[in-house]
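Obj: model holo form, ligand = acetoacetyl-coenzyme A.
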Amino acid sequence: MEKVLEKDFQTFKLTEDQELLRKTIRDVAEENFKEKAREIDKTHRFPRENFELLSQLEMTGLTLPEKYGGGGMDYVSYSIVIEELAKVCATTSVILAAHLSLCSIPINIFGSDFIKEKYLKKLARGEFLGAFCLSEPGNGSDAQAMLTKAEDKGDYYLLNGTKAWITNGKEADVYVVLAQEIPLDTLKEKGLAKHKGVSAFIVEKNMAGVSFGKLEDKLGIRASSTCQVILDNVKVPKENLLGSTGEGFKIAMVTLDGGRIGIASQALGIAQACFDLASSYAKQREAFGKKISDFQAIQFMLTEMATEIEVGRLLTYQAANLHDTGEKFTKSAAEAKLFCSELASKAANKALQILGGYGYTTEYDAERFLRDAKITEIYEGTSEIQRIVIAQNIIKEISDKI
Ligand code: CAA
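Output (holo structure tokens):
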């Protein structure tokens, strides 16, 4: 077992470009998104102008190839950008994360040259906003249990079904949609597993038959436009099949591996924001004749937050780095997401406790951080799913070594 968990120790040093990117995105976020974060949390208003500013700064195509108008940057850079955005506005960070890692990146990995020309350039430039449709009202963690159907009609595919919990739902222009193409009976006859009949399609908002459910009234990330995407006899051109027939489940899993690094980064940003708020408050607030930062009870809370944030950051950069070097990163991504999402909730609780009564009000951001943190333990695979993914990979590593 020890051998399995052994890792080469790496100290993580960001490159000058990555440090510069962090400073740039931090300044932009502080200046443009921070004040607004409270307003959009209250009103649920989707901040399209934030996405537009990110597109002007070439962030909407950050990791996409330069050939298609992207920035050609690495995944560590992506992680830094999402973390910095999440520090001031978790909603804005998930809008970009869903656009890039759940929609644009799978199109880049699995799309034909034709499809990349058709969609990737506009996604990279931020002319299109992307979304990913896997979950349904009756299935989330059990991704194979989807009911959405795709029928091959010769000249086109016909899609029918309802997708749920879609980030950027009503606002997106392009959706990567997973649907059961090969009927279950056919798969059974051929002795094939259910997931071998799932395919992925690119659906546009303006295709006839696409409509939306009501916006979900959420606890946190309240402005990110989460709703059902309803597909009623939607005719999808043949060339909009992503990858090949039956490859959809694999596409979804590969997409979520990358997406989970984004959510780990988002959670890390929220945790860092909690630490920053709590530590600056503790240095100013006085009780019993001294600053509350002088009390060991407060110091211990700050210490735990700071230590766990460092661990979370190393896990996240390690997963991103494995992604960049082309190594397997499924387990690392799940570890980073599991650790950072639970850290975000813990850090938010501690920040609120340190701020006391003020933390429980909207005068400070601690209560928003707590509400925003919770979703990171749920979307793109719950903490329970991350534990399953990590366990499956550990067991496989053990079996491979025996
Ligand atoms: N990469 C590539 N292929 C993978 C893979 C990966 N990481 N994980 C599994 N697969 C492949 C397997 O190899 C297998 O293929 P073969 O039969 O050809 O070998 C196939 O997928 C099925 O694998 P499993 O039998 O392990 O599948 P399962 O049904 O047991 O499910 C699971 C595994 C990990 C639980 C998966 O269902 C899962 O990740 N569930 C959570 C889904 C999720 O995260 N949903 C969130 C939706 S996105 C969202 O949140 C909305 C938003 O907008 C933010």
